[in-house]
Amino acid sequence: MLINKSEWLGRVPVGTHGADLNGRVGIRGGGLRMVFQALKLSALALLLSGPWIGLQAQSVAVPPKRTVNDWLNRMHDASRQRDYTGTLVVSTGMAMSASRIWHVCDGEHQMERIETLTGAPRTTIRRNNDVITFAPDEKRAWVEKRESLGLFPELLRTPANVIPEFYDVRETGRERVAGYLSDAVEIVPRDSLRFGYRIWAERESGLVVKLQTIDLKGQILEQLAFSELKLDAPVRMDKLKKQMKDTRGYEVFHPAFVKTSAEAAGWTVKAMVAGFQLMSCHTRARPDPSLGQVDAMQCVFSDGLASVSLFIEPLETDQPGAEGRSSTGATHLLRRHLATHWVTAMGEVPMETLVRMSEALERSR
Question: Would you tell me how many other CB atoms lie within 10 Å of the CB of residue 226?
């Protein structure tokens, strides 16, 4: 699939790890609050029957026939080569959300439509890296480009030899999911600074049909699974193109990213958590600089599977909020003061990882 997990939920209209509806990144603009209000609507509907063995514990498993990179690349390629439709259910705790997905590719281009079935109505349509999100109740639409796509968005942007240093793989057998015989694979962390994953991939194609994020105690934090799936479905690309262009009656926003670097903004990152590499730093272009809006910088770090965003925003005297920690499912958030700024770390990693990452930031000027 082209989409990432947050898009399956219909959680966030634009951006990575959160942005508000007016196209601003940050906390004061409501971006992270909106993310977590929406995250609380996501949930778990399908639990494994029987006990779960912790991913870091010893267990009996079939020796892998493929390396961890072999499995991940197979899953990634399958998401880009098959046409399908389906209903995807995302669950966390006692809450649940669902989306309907249409996906088509012609060997050169890919298109996808994601329509939320729960919560606020949202429809997201992609053509390669071009994305538009419609909010029909508000009659608003957001148009943008996204570089990082897929179940693990940064998979192909990190060196191939990094992932095996921090994750192992176990093949645990085969099960039926949404009517398809699927290979079950555990992606096992080699340390306590990242979560593990249990993934079911359709046997013939490698398409991911179910995924669980597992904490250090072996507990399921979050699950994504197709409740209904039709492979090689007759999805028409020309029809999706027309839907993507039809913005009649909508107020259309074009939020733009401005690439930057931590150093250019007066920050240095020291002693980063092993395996995590800087993927990008950016701010949002101001719709109207005369309004005096304050830019927040977002830097994204990834080890190829897990991603963490660090938001850095000037602290204002009238800005509400306090330092704190919170979590919803696999997503954890840490917020603290640093010099004259707010630093917010957010990602699908253990809290200790966010603490270390936020402490690696230093003000250089």
Answer: 23
